[in-house]
From TrEMBL, chain A:
<dbReference type="InterPro" id="IPR050366">
    <property type="entry name" value="BP-dependent_transpt_permease"/>
</dbReference>
<dbReference type="GO" id="GO:0005886">
    <property type="term" value="C:plasma membrane"/>
</dbReference>
<dbReference type="InterPro" id="IPR000515">
    <property type="entry name" value="MetI-like"/>
</dbReference>
<feature type="domain" description="ABC transmembrane type-1">
    <location>
        <begin position="83"/>
        <end position="273"/>
    </location>
</feature>
<dbReference type="InterPro" id="IPR025966">
    <property type="entry name" value="OppC_N"/>
</dbReference>
<feature type="transmembrane region" description="Helical">
    <location>
        <begin position="146"/>
        <end position="165"/>
    </location>
</feature>
<keyword id="KW-0472">Membrane</keyword>
Automatic annotation (TrEMBL), chain C:
<feature type="domain" description="ABC transmembrane type-1">
    <location>
        <begin position="98"/>
        <end position="300"/>
    </location>
</feature>
<keyword id="KW-0812">Transmembrane</keyword>
<feature type="transmembrane region" description="Helical">
    <location>
        <begin position="281"/>
        <end position="300"/>
    </location>
</feature>
<dbReference type="InterPro" id="IPR035906">
    <property type="entry name" value="MetI-like_sf"/>
</dbReference>
<dbReference type="GO" id="GO:0055085">
    <property type="term" value="P:transmembrane transport"/>
</dbReference>
<feature type="transmembrane region" description="Helical">
    <location>
        <begin position="100"/>
        <end position="123"/>
    </location>
</feature>
<protein>
    <submittedName>
        <fullName>ABC transporter permease</fullName>
    </submittedName>
</protein>
UniProtKB/TrEMBL annotation, chain D:
<dbReference type="InterPro" id="IPR027417">
    <property type="entry name" value="P-loop_NTPase"/>
</dbReference>
<dbReference type="GO" id="GO:0016887">
    <property type="term" value="F:ATP hydrolysis activity"/>
</dbReference>
<comment type="similarity">
    <text>Belongs to the ABC transporter superfamily.</text>
</comment>
<keyword id="KW-0067">ATP-binding</keyword>
<dbReference type="InterPro" id="IPR003593">
    <property type="entry name" value="AAA+_ATPase"/>
</dbReference>
<keyword id="KW-0547">Nucleotide-binding</keyword>
<feature type="domain" description="ABC transporter">
    <location>
        <begin position="1"/>
        <end position="250"/>
    </location>
</feature>
Length: 286, 516, 318, 577
């Protein structure tokens, strides 16, 4: 059965190299967001949930650079705190799915045979559940919040990584250099883990970087639907959701700021992910 | 950028111009799709807004919140334990079959049937039996004296449905395929799931006063506040109740129709659900109320279209009350002005400084945030700490029905509306061990006053007792009253005739709407 | 291998996947600790009657496998149980809302196809030039706009500010429905355009570099003919594969768009049902989307030999 | 009459790189002109420029005149016209050159229908007649087949037929046989020659195989690094190369010693007979002969013996493949055995079983007296097996781990088998690298930065680091240019001489085997059909298949008809597979 991995693989296909300035800008931007998230408690001008009912839906001012929301909370401060869930949750998903995916992919790709078939069948089934759907189902089962969706997304994305790893490992395994290692007397475990795996890691890493962007957007969507991060916790998706009703009154800023932030972070992550995969694309054809 | 909110200016409208003629059809925005049109489950604005036009009750609750005969031509109260209803003759259901006492008995008995699980059981909690005592007569026997039962017959609890239809539809009764078969000015037309419900004028309607002016009314479900506002602003729909607060200023400016404010019976309160905790001390409750910037809350939550209050009822429900009673109930009560310093002192006196409170909220609408955050801010300003716990809307609903859900919870918000024209409905709830006395507040004096009032059949006389109860509640603050806000209505430029009032829940208001 | 055997094989794989997916959908409920009755009645007043009713309706007193068999038998006959919220058959509740979602998905799919293919083809034919880069940057940015962001921006601009399009509802009649679905389907299409665009581009670029294309050119075929007959025709495989993935993605993402635009489709129903703990409806919609995904992909798989004759022989594609 | 006149053609890339540097070349009607040179010398670029197929942003200089049309400044329409009527091109790899998703019939009739506007039936008739002309067995049936259903040789015939649909005046062939087996090559060349003669076309024939050019061309141009180094009468250029480059190239080109119906010749004679046109190309093979005479140490137990080896691959839903059938070989200590045979004859499978990558179904393999039949499982077995036999693989681009530097690769292999301190190991690595003609700098290099020849040297050093008893080389030089191949081959010879290494040398190229191996076995469809001393085998082949193989090798006096006759004779008796 065809799978989303194939789609992802095609997306990765090498292309004319982008000028590194976009890459640099993206990296700097992501770095800044990360720092803002980590040091939010020092950098943010206000506590994220500090209500100021006398100063609601205010425009940008020296006191509130990005204005305030319907409760008079400082949008900038909430953005900084919101960056925590925005970055941390996808990070957890990506780390978990990458580790599990690589282990399973290695197992399937290297051992082949029935293990490969069984795992492949399991992946097919999980693939049939789009990540967001699995996350929504997890919420239906275990209640709202981020825990269930993060676990569900990790499960949903693991097969992506696993299938990519599997196909990379399987194609590496048939290469003469692997046969050469065998002929030299190296053991299968050593070849698989110490030689072949490092060769496919960059591509898997680039794919995981791209996954980070997708997961971020999907988790934000979940919060937007009111199924993810719950009020009053600052979260970008939830902020868009909360500020939505202000749109009719012409208060665009509280909704627009987190929306734009999501778009920018995803663009930055994609730029970095694609450039990474471009850089290595030439060396190890997938 | 919109400038800083000025103190909002608004006045209540009780009626709008009479229609100049009939209409083919008009559309109405409903903020949600009813889950069911089964009157036994019609417990929410969305359901009742539609149902009120299709199904009628024994009594009729008018826009001015008075009660008049409905499907019962008359009601007698021969003994304190019995209510006798004479069913109106010549009324037919939408399928053409005549209304009989048997239909009334069948409809009312459903509320007592555990298998149905009626949302209106509480109205019937003291009912011993409902029997047909004549061709067109139904007698309800209570387990004890009860002045309130009949007041509930103006709402969904008093709806009469064809007994044959109930038996025929079974489990599908009231859902989008089953529909309903009642006696109202409109009959159930089409229910497009998720989209709309269309009602059609019932030509055999019995009451010439309320014969529908429009051949058709279409309720369109629009969950999204933005969508609703836009649709109203652009004239895509002709009107809607309960306008999102954010949109009120804009719709006031709109030339597509009129933004109107009407009678309401709801007061927005903070329920104290744990009187064994720090809030068990009345001084702490008073302090918290004084520390709440209630005007600020009004501004943020309803954009200023509301007034702060110190009591748990609105004047609108004091139908039939004596002037003296109203003066006592609203004039002679404690005021709790915004005064952080005084409040702080009270807390210190009570030795509660540093105490922690748990406030439960849910992402139901944007104003919920305001109450939560404002309460937290108020508590902090007087040396208390409030932990806000956010739960799902369903878990939040459980707070109102499940005592275990309230464990460890000190405060939660409610907009408590009265569905009968008597403030006693509110205060009977606060008696010791009442189901909805969520904090377990107990005051023997209060209980005695309320019980006394319940037994008084004359409304004016009763109201003076009720006023006493209101005074006690005002001093003791079992719940913290915050503000009352009018019902909001937008009426597009094509239509007119409706009376803005919370009675849209029970009164066939859509029948009054015709061409402007 | 005969076509019939291939199709039979695919059908077997499809049924197996669906079977496993149904297990997952059904038994997921058992992952939640505690009493299944209280799970289904979560947040509702658990009156003994309601407990009894739900127990009887779902056969919760039976052993799990028996429950599963009963459920599956029902599902195979189109009976997904009863909605706890709507007091109606789930199949009815879903059936009423399916047309909107399908309309939305079809319209979005059409837009994606038109815009994605055009962008991909234009970029590939101008590979490395300014136009190519512009298209790529445009696609990357579009691909980073989640449906909900797209929705609110489109509403803010085209419905609120300009008033060109309605901001809610699905309209009546064919043209009105299309008119109502324009903004939602754009919001839905935005993120996915990048997928088709980039796949088309890379697939075309790959084919453009193929020797058979040069052979065709050397034989004096017009460039247009070469692109059409040899480049595009050969690029369809990966594009179709991605389209298969798209179907499920669109169905799921429609929940966001439908919620934002107030459309009564199965997506918004899914979210509402999660919100209101109407698990039977959630179960049914999940199963529906999964089935759609699996079936569409199986169809694409079966079609593959027509697109790439080598697939029939089991040789590596492309 | 001159069909094609290229003069002072230059081609520059935007980055300033000059790919073609003043090429001048003519082809007359009825003439076959060869264009030879090593990989990357610009042969294909030159040929493509004739049809206006140029890298997109290249700047051109000089002129290309095809009949009365100047190509470089032709309009779009003129270019189409020119491609449709004047010249056609045949590409190297028929599998890549025919759209795999369309039928053969579509490929053949496409231009007739779309460019000439002929009716489908008409085009079909022409296609069938052309397929008959290129001797495709079942034209009607082939029309509806897809490329993957045809063999490489058949596909190349389709490609030729396709090129002939437009009745071109000039046929450009860009290495049309490089992807094919020798026997198939001979057949294809036969078809090409026949068509060229019957249609009176001019032909520009590109190849890197000097022998092939000498066999079929009237005149040749020798290219190197974008320039024409030498041109002239084909035979003359090879017999008596003038330019230094051509001399080196000729010297590096191995050949089989073929004297029709003559007795086996001593290698020494060959070396001396460098003026003899027939033997000229064997000039540099002297070393091999001396090697073969120094090492043979019979009597003792053979270093490698494999008896009755068989291997069958079973795949689901397909016929089982009998890759190797009851094959036996023996190599004495220090000996070199060549295995030749066409693609798919089972050579690699055989080698993989010997090095323990594949389990033989039946048979017995012994190396230095030890049982080495089964695939080693335990660590001890693995190491022992590795010390007894090592292998150098065919593709130098894929047989090195892309992430590991050359030095590290060798060091790893060495330290797996022996305890060595880091410094000792480094020293040994350098020694080994020097031995294979590489140095310090190469130790730090990753494979990506090394050339094909350098990579193969690293692979060789890596195998030698383990100091095995036997070295298996599977087509170890077939991916390399002739000059690089010559260098690697002499390196192997040298090492054999120094270390007394036993070598199993697998190749499809008889000339290479002839140069390196004392003895040779010939494999066909999994079975060994003939064995013997290399020189005897080449000079006096017994099995018809061996004879066909030998006769298919191009050489100046090449009797293509004889090859065809032999091929058809072989078809019948051995067609059982
Ligand atoms: N489109 C192109 N763009 C840039 N460089 C090119 C292009 N085509 C060929 N080259 C370069 O031009 C040089 C000559 O290439 P060409 O293909 O003509 O060599 P060749 O003699 O045919 O080699 P081979 O025997 O390997 O086919 C090579 O270095 C190659 O990398
Ligand atoms: N792993 C395998 N599974 C199935 N068949 C195989 C496998 N490996 C090789 N074969 C088949 O076995 C036969 C012999 O293959 P082998 O690679 O040994 O040939 P070869 O003589 O080395 O050919 P070449 O000159 O092309 O390298 C071929 O028909 C091939 O298709
Ligand atoms: Mg070439
Ligand atoms: Mg081989």
């Amino acid at each position: 059965m065809t799978t989303p991995t194939m789609a992802m693989k095609v997306l990765r296909s090498p292309r004319a190299r982008r000028s590194s300035t976009t890459f640099l800008i993206s990296a700097v931007f992501l770095g800044a967001v990360t720092i803002a998230a980590i040091f939010a408690s020092f950098l943010a001008p206000y506590p994220p949930n500090q209500v100021d009912l006398l100063n609601i839906q205010a425009g940008p001012s020296p006191a509130h650079w990005l204005g305030t929301d319907a409760l008079g909370r400082d949008t900038l401060s909430r953005m900084m705190y919101g960056a925590r869930t925005a970055l941390l949750a996808p990070l957890l998903v990506v780390v978990f799915s990458t580790i599990v995916g690589i282990l399973l992919g290695l197992l399937a790709g290297w051992r082949g045979g029935w293990i490969d078939s069984v795992l492949g069948r399991i992946f097919d089934v999980i693939f049939a559940f789009p990540a967001l759907l699995l996350a929504i189902m997890a919420v239906a089962l275990f209640g709202k919040g981020l825990v269930a969706p993060v676990v569900a997304m990790s499960i949903a994305y693991a097969p992506f990584v696993a299938r990519l790893t599997r196909s990379l490992i399987a194609s590496e395994r048939s290469r003469p250099y692997v046969a050469a290692y065998r002929v030299q007397g190296f053991g299968g475990g050593f070849i698989a883990l110490r030689r072949v795996l490092p060769n496919v890691m960059p591509i898997v890493g680039a794919q995981s970087t791209l996954n980070f962007g997708y997961v971020l957007a999907e988790l934000a969507a979940l919060s937007f639907l009111g199924l993810g991060v719950q009020a009053p916790t600052a979260d970008w998706g939830a902020m868009v959701n909360e500020a939505q009703s202000g749109l009719i009154g012409g208060y665009f800023l509280p909704a627009l700021v987190p929306a734009v932030a999501i778009v920018l972070v995803v663009v930055a992550v994609n730029v970095i992910g694609e450039e990474l995969s471009d850089r290595i694309g030439g060396e190890i054809p997938a | 950028e919109p400038e800083k909110a000025q103190p909002a200016e608004w006045e209540l409208t009780s009626t709008t111009d009479a229609p100049s003629g009939d209409l083919e059809s008009f559309t109405w925005a409903n903020y949600a799709e009813p889950y069911s049109l089964d009157y036994a489950y019609a417990f929410d604005y969305a359901d009742n807004m539609v149902l009120a036009n299709v199904c009628e009750s024994l009594m009729r609750l008018n826009p001015d919140w008075t009660l008049s005969p409905g499907l019962a031509e008359s009601v007698a109260h021969p003994t304190p334990e019995t209510w006798v209803y004479e069913i109106r003759d010549g009324v037919t259901f939408h399928d053409g079959t005549p209304l009989t006492a048997a239909d009334a008995v069948a409809s009312m008995n459903r509320h007592l049937d555990p298998a149905v699980g009626s949302s209106w059981y509480s109205t019937y909690q003291n009912v011993a039996s409902i029997e047909q005592t004549g061709d067109m007569q139904v007698t309800v026997t209570m387990t004890g004296p009860d002045s309130q039962f009949n007041l509930g017959m103006g709402g969904s609890a008093g709806v009469i449905e064809s007994a044959a239809t109930l038996a025929d539809k079974g489990a599908d009764y009231g859902n989008s395929t089953g529909g309903v078969n009642c006696t109202g000015p409109f009959s159930f037309g089409e229910w497009q799931s998720g989209e709309s419900i269309t009602l059609e004028r019932y030509d055999g309607y019995w009451d010439p006063e309320l014969t529908a002016r429009s051949a058709e009314v279409k309720f369109i479900f629009m969950n999204d506040a933005n969508a609703r506002t836009n649709a109203l602003k652009s004239g895509e729909v002709d009107g809607g109740w309960m306008i999102p607060a954010d949109a009120v200023p804009q719709l006031l400016d709109s030339d597509q129709g009129d933004m109107l404010f009407g009678l309401n019976t709801a007061v927005n309160n903070l329920i104290i659900s744990d009187l064994d905790g720090p809030l068990g001390d009345v001084r702490v409750r008073q302090a918290l109320l004084m520390a709440l910037d209630r005007q600020g809350i009004v501004d943020a939550a309803v954009k200023g279209y509301g007034t702060t209050t110190d009591v748990l009822t609105t004047e609108s429900v004091w139908d039939g009350a004596s002037d003296a009673a109203i003066a006592t109930a609203f004039g002679d009560v404690e005021e709790y002005p915004y005064d952080v310093e005084a409040a702080k002192k009270l807390v210190e006196e009570a030795g509660a400084t540093g105490a922690e409170l748990t406030y439960v909220t849910a992402p139901i609408s944007s104003d919920f945030n305001v109450y939560a955050q404002a309460t937290a801010a108020a508590a902090e300003s007087i040396g208390l700490t409030v932990n806000i716990e956010t739960v799902t809307p369903n878990a939040y609903t459980a707070l109102f029905s499940d005592p275990t859900a309230r464990e460890g919870v000190d405060l939660f918000y409610t907009s408590w509306y009265l569905s009968s024209p008597d403030p006693l409905e509110m205060y009977s709830v606060l008696r010791t061990d009442e189901f909805s006395n969520y904090g377990g507040w107990s005051n023997p004096e209060f209980d005695a006053v309320v019980n006394e009032a319940l037994a008084i059949q004359d409304p004016a006389e009763r109201s003076e007792k009720t006023a006493e109860a209101q005074q006690i509640a005002n001093e003791e603050l079992p719940w913290l009253p915050m503000f009352e806000a009018p019902v909001t209505l937008f009426m597009g430029e094509r239509i007119t005739g409706v009376s803005p009032s919370i009675a849209f829940m029970y009164y066939p208001w859509a029948a009054t709407i015709g061409a402007r | 291998m005969t076509t019939l055997r291939r199709v039979a094989g695919k059908l077997g794989a499809l049924l197996l996947t669906l079977f496993l997916a149904s297990l997952l959908v059904f038994f997921s409920r058992f992952l939640v600790p505690g009493d299944p009755v209280s799970f289904l009645l979560r947040g509702r007043k658990p009156s003994p009657e309601a407990v009894a009713q739900v127990t009887a309706q779902y056969g919760l007193d039976l052993p799990p496998w028996q429950q599963y068999l009963n459920w599956l038998t029902g599902v195979l006959q189109g009976d997904f149980g009863r909605s706890l919220q709507y007091r109606q058959d789930v199949s009815q509740v879903i059936g009423d809302r399916l047309p909107v979602t399908l309309g939305l998905v079809v319209m979005a799919g059409t837009m994606i196809a038109i815009v994605g293919l055009t962008a991909g083809i234009v970029a590939s034919l101008n590979r490395g030039k300014v136009l190519d880069r512009a298209v790529l940057i445009g696609l990357t940015v579009l691909g980073a706009i989640p449906s909900f962001v797209g929705s609110i921006v489109l509403i803010a601009i085209f419905a609120v500010q300009l008033g060109w399009f309605p901001s809610f509802g699905s309209g009546e009649g064919f043209w009105d429905t299309i008119y109502h679905l324009v903004l939602p389907s754009i919001a839905l299409a935005i993120v996915f355009v990048v997928l088709v665009g980039k796949v088309t581009r890379s697939s075309m670029v790959e084919q453009l570099g193929r020797e058979h294309v040069e052979v065709a050119t050397s034989r004096g075929l017009k460039r247009g003919t070469v692109i059409r007959r040899h480049v595009f025709r050969n690029s369809i495989g990966p594009i179709l594969t991605v389209s298969g993935v798209l179907v499920a993605g669109l169905l799921v993402a429609s929940s966001i768009v439908e919620a934002a635009f107030g459309l009564a489709g199965i997506g918004s129903l899914l979210v509402a049902s999660v919100d209101r703990l109407d698990f039977p409806v959630v179960q049914a919609i999940v199963l529906l989307i999964v089935t759609a995904f699996v079936v569409v992909n199986a169809i694409i798989d079966v079609l593959e030999p027509w697109i790439d004759p080598r697939a029939a022989a089991g040789a590596g594609a492309r | 009459m001159t069909l094609l006149d290229i003069s002072e053609l230059t081609l520059d890339l935007p980055n300033g790189k000059r790919l073609l540097d003043g090429i001048s070349l003519t082809v007359a009607e009825g003439e076959t002109v060869g264009l030879v040179g090593e990989s990357g010398s610009g042969k294909s670029l030159t040929a493509r420029s004739v049809l206006g197929l140029l890298p997109s942003r290249a700047t051109m200089g000089g002129s290309v005149q095809l009949l009365d049309q100047s190509v470089l400044d032709a309009s779009r329409r003129q270019l189409l016209e020119l491609r449709r009527t004047r010249a056609s091109m045949i590409f190297q790899d028929p599998r890549a050159g025919i759209n795999p998703m369309r039928t053969v019939g579509d490929h053949l009739t496409e231009t007739m229908r779309l460019c000439e506007g002929r009716s489908a039936a008409d085009a079909r008739a022409v296609a069938i007649s052309l397929m008959e002309a290129v001797r495709l067995p079942r034209p009607e049936e082939h029309l509806h087949q897809y490329p993957h259903e045809l063999s490489g040789g058949m596909l190349q015939r389709v490609m030729i037929a396709g090129a002939l649909t437009s009745s071109p005046r000039l046929l450009i062939c860009d290495e049309p046989t490089t992807a094919l087996d020798v026997t198939t090559q001979a057949e294809i060349i036969g078809v090409l020659a026949e068509q060229r003669a019957s249609r009176g076309m001019g032909m520009l024939f590109i190849t890197h195989d000097l022998n092939l050019a000498a066999a079929i061309c009237d005149r040749v141009y020798v290219m190197s690094a974008g320039r024409v180094e030498e041109q002239g009468d084909a035979r003359q250029v090879f017999r008596n190369p003038q330019a230094a480059y051509t001399k080196r190239l000729v010297a590096a080109t191995p050949t089989i010693v073929v004297r029709d119906s003559s007795t086996p010749t001593d290698a020494g004679t060959d070396a001396a007979a460098s003026t003899n046109p027939d033997a000229a190309v064997g000039a540099s093979t002297g070393g091999a002969a001396s090697a073969s005479s120094t090492v043979a140490v019979p009597a003792t137990e053979p270093m490698l013996s494999a008896t009755g080896i068989s291997k069958t691959y079973t795949r689901r839903g397909k016929e089982p493949v009998h890759a190797v059938i009851d094959a036996s070989i023996e190599i004495p200590r220090g000996g070199a055995l060549g295995v030749v045979g066409e693609s798919g004859s089972g050579k690699s499978t055989f080698a993989r079983m010997i090095v323990g990558l594949e389990q033989a179904d039946a048979g017995d393999i012994r190396i230095a007296g030890r049982e080495r039949t089964s695939v080693p499982s335990s660590r001890v077995e693995r190491l022992e097996h590795a010390r007894s036999v090592q292998m150098v693989f065919q593709d130098p681009y894929l047989s090195l781990d892309p992430r590991i530097t050359a030095g590290k690769a060798i060091e790893d292999a060495m330290r797996l088998h022996r305890r060595l301190s880091t410094t000792d190991a480094r020293e040994r690595v350098l020694e080994l690298l020097e031995q294979v003609g590489l140095g310090d700098v190469h130790a730090q290099a990753r494979p990506r930065t090394l050339s094909g020849g350098q990579r193969q040297r690293v692979a060789l050093a890596r195998a030698l680091a383990i100091e095995p008893d036997v070295l298996v080389m599977d087509e170890a030089t077939s991916a390399l240019d002739v000059s690089v191949q010559a260098q690697v081959l002499s390196l192997v010879e040298e090492i054999r001489r120094e270390r007394g290494l036993t070598v199993l040398f697998i190749s499809h190229d008889l000339a290479v085997v002839r140069r390196l191996c004392d003895e040779t076995v010939v494999m066909k469809t999994g079975a060994i059909v003939e064995r013997g001393r290399t020189i005897e085998l080449l000079g006096n082949p017994q099995h018809p298949y061996t004879r066909l193989l030998i006769d298919s090798v191009p050489r100046p006096e090449w009797n293509l008809d004889a090859v065809a006759a032999e091929a058809s004779e072989l078809e019948d008796p051995v067609a059982q597979n």
